[in-house]
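JOB MANIFEST
job_type = single_chain_structure
chain_count = 1
residues = 107
[input]
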Amino acid sequence: MSSDGLPYPIFAYAALLPWNYFAQAIALSGTSVVRDASLVNKVYFPRLIMPIAATITPLMDFAIAFVLLVGMMAWYGIAPTWAVITLPLFLLLAMMTALACACSSRP
């Protein structure tokens, strides 16, 4: 696969970063209600809190990895483009998709 002149470590890491967030968010949110079923039965609270917390938790991993990506980009002398503005929108889309998958699973 052609990286269009970008160094391959930047090309691959920039693609793996959002994918890892999405995979972790789906894995954690999909099992959150089932994993904490005893808590749901004992205490009344909105069940949507657990999948939301499970999708927010991988954001910390994403933030740390994003700082590493920015450092790698500085090392290779690559300046970010205006496409970085769309990053929060894609993260929100990934979070909403993970929540939709979690809400469709039944305990």
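[summary]
The first helix runs from residue 8 to 35.
The helical segments are 8-35, 37-42, 49-76, 87-104.
exit_status = 0
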